Amino acid sequence: MYEVLFWFLTIMAIGCALGVILSRNPVNSVLFLIATFFAISGHYLLLNAQFLAVVNIIVYAGAIMVLFLFVMMLMNLNADVEPQKSRLAQLAGMIAGGVLFLVILAALRTASLSVLDKQSNDIGLIKNLGKVLFTQYVLPFEISSVLFLSAIIGAVVISRKEEVHSTVADGSVNTSDIK
Amino acid sequence: MKAIIAATISGVILMFAGILVKEKKNAVTLAVILLLALLGVNIYEVVSTPAAAPQAFFNNMLRIDRYAVWFNTLLTGCTLLYVLLIGKEIAKVGSHVAEYFALICFILCGLYILSGYNNMLMLFLGIEIISIPQYILAGSDKKNLKSSEASLKYFLMGAFSTGILLMGITLLYGATGSFYITNFTFLQADSLNVLALAGIILVMIALSFKVSAAPFHMWTPDVYDGAPTAFTAFMATVAKAAAFIAFLRLFQVAFGSLSNSWTLVLSVITAATLFVGNITAVFQQSVKRMLAYSSIAQAGFMLFAVISVNAIAWQGIIIYAVAYSVATIGIFAVLLKLKDYTYDGFNGLAQKEPTLAFVATIFLLSLAGIPLTGGFMAKYYVLSAAMQQGHLMWLVIFALLMAAISVYYYFRVIIAMYFKPGNPELNSPVTQTDKFLLILTCAIVLLIGIFPQLFLSV
User: pTM for this structure?
Assistant: First the structure.
């Protein structure tokens, strides 16, 4: 049963990932990507990491991809407006990507990875995850708040209207908004 | 560790000051006060950190030693100098002055993490903490299309390179089962672990992007040219030094014993960086864009410290980071005084503003690496670190050749200032305070060149 599920999810993940890059229509690409996320979440479940699986579906497949889909549909992209890359750039990209693929393939072929014991493994349960997060990884957890703070400041600085104070000849201050 | 907390608190204070402080001048003053306090905290850390063993914090997430704290102190000093010299210009960029300073404080927090991290997670967080504020600062001049372009370009490329970094970290974790850089046990066990080597290469590519090494430098000229000049001065100096200390730390501490496998790749990157940076800088017409390419070229020299796995390399990066930062901040402060950023804009500056022209000459001489200036000592240290490795002779000779080429484009500015007639237009009058600060900066550059030991003693 486990084997069957594993192979089903693996084929689904790889097939959908290929669909993302091969389909001409960007909307189809996004839908394929959502399917890929579901397949990967299935893998997480097989590894007994329920929390990760649920978060992956809620955050990625749910929130981010739906937002992505909206943007895609609003921008109304299709094959005609897509910028054409030159043949040389395409070839260079193909070679570079192919070489990376080859290297990683070679790396994984010879690698001796320690296999996770799926029976006794319950690290992915929310209770254990929370414990690790607040003991061993408490510093990265807290420091990431600095990252979010700077992102919030960025959102405010970039999206707020600039108020320009221009002094008129008689000395009074005139405030006008510039878009 | 105290410095990380202090930098974060300073950032938060400045963030809230954005609501309360209406006068732009007061925001600059507040930033100067907070940076002074931050410098004080750093000096306290230098005194209180034991010289021998590094201190481990939070399950070994950070291992902070005297060296790291000293590096932080010097770069905090550079930031203070930057705010004193360029603070007025920062206030002119937009209306969110306090927020810009808050972002600068967060970048300093990232720097403190990067100089002492011991875990790949902290490396990732540190790199992101210095990157995200930079994307924002690059796009802070919202009315300028080039600034927005710079921000978007930097953000997209930066996000992509972060993806590569994460992929590299994943492969390294797969190969070793650990995130701790001092625990990378595969180094001794089997040195031909292909999974780990692929991880090292991916991490190297991502970090090369962050320090703008060729062939991952494409974003640099557009971003540094498009971003408001006041922020380019910070992005090209302190933020870049932060990325470099992370690069150095990872490759010396974690991958040092494996250097046979990556030295060749990194020396090709170094040679390419030196070549692209120097040759392209020759053809620029704008001084600001020339400085962007020169920052690529200088990154090539700093990469020498990363390649050489020895003690001089650690000293070299500290001297190089400070000498390059101080001189670059100085030359940007001069550039900000001028209306026209082309070479012709500098014509006749020596007649109109002799002090400005004189200090600019010292900064440019330092960047070119002329003896008695800080730049010479910096180049001397990083190149002698490479010499000690033995097999990098060809790269050292190539670097000297490239340094000779760099003299051409730095001297073009000096020739324009002293030997060409003209009447350069100034943005704002040069006050006595400006002159004093510029001469102080100039004195620091000369001090590094004459007594480099002062900056190495920890």
Answer: 0.91
